[in-house]
Amino acid sequence: QVQLVESGGGLVQAGGSLRLSCAASKLLFTIDVMAWYRQAPGNQRELVATITSAGGTTYSDSVKGRFTISRDTAKKTVYLQMSSLKPEDTAVYYCNARGGLYLGLREVWGQGTLVTVSS
Could you tell me the CA-to-CA distances from 66 to 36, 46, 99, 104 in Å, in that order? Predict the structure, then answer.
């Protein structure tokens, strides 16, 4: 089974930066897609960014140019570097893994980490 542990959330002022980490229990090349989602109070969970086992990345329009998803395969960790943060970025951020050797058609979620951006 794949387990994910997020860290790095906190309180930051608008315009600031924060880096989230997601440590996986399995080698990243065994997971088809790693992703970051977020859920603000009263809103549905939304996709923020993805990175594939081949290293390809995608971003939602709302974060493109401000957020960067990356990985360290040796540390089995995926990062989300967030810059130029806005109050509307406030949410619980979740790491997600889907597909690959151990998951097949399934997906798993981390416990979430809260990011609060003050104006």
Answer: 14, 16, 27, 32
Which has the closest alpha carbon to 89: 65, 68, 63, 110? 63
Neighbours of 23 (CB within 10 A): 16
Q: Which of 117, 74, 111, 116 is nearest to 95 (CA)?
A: 111
Q: Which of 12, 66, 14 minimizes the C-alpha distance to 36?
A: 66
From first CA to last CA, the distance across the chain in angstroms is 40
pLDDT (tens, 9 = 90+) of the chain, 119 residues, equals 899 999 999 999 999 999 999 999 999 999 999 999 999 999 999 999 999 999 999 999 999 999 999 999 999 999 999 999 999 999 999 999 999 989 988 999 999 999 999 99
